[in-house]
Amino acid sequence: PSMGSLMQQARAEFDAVKGTPELEALKAYVTAPGTAGGARQSETTVLLTITHCNLGARFLELRFDLHSSIDNVKSKLYQHTGTAPQSMVLQLKDPSGALMCVMDDGARPLGFYSPLDGYVLHVIDTDPHSLSARGGLEDVSQVEKYVMSDDDYNNRENTYRKFKEDKLRKDPTWTLQKEMAERRGVPVPEPTDPDAYVEEAKACTVDSRCEVSPGGKRGVVRFVGKDLKGMPPGWWIGVQYDEPVGKNDGSVKGERYFECPQGYGGFIRPDKVQCGDFPNLDDELFASDDDEI
Question: What predicted TM-score, i.e. pTM, was given to this entire model?
Answer without folding.
Answer: 0.40
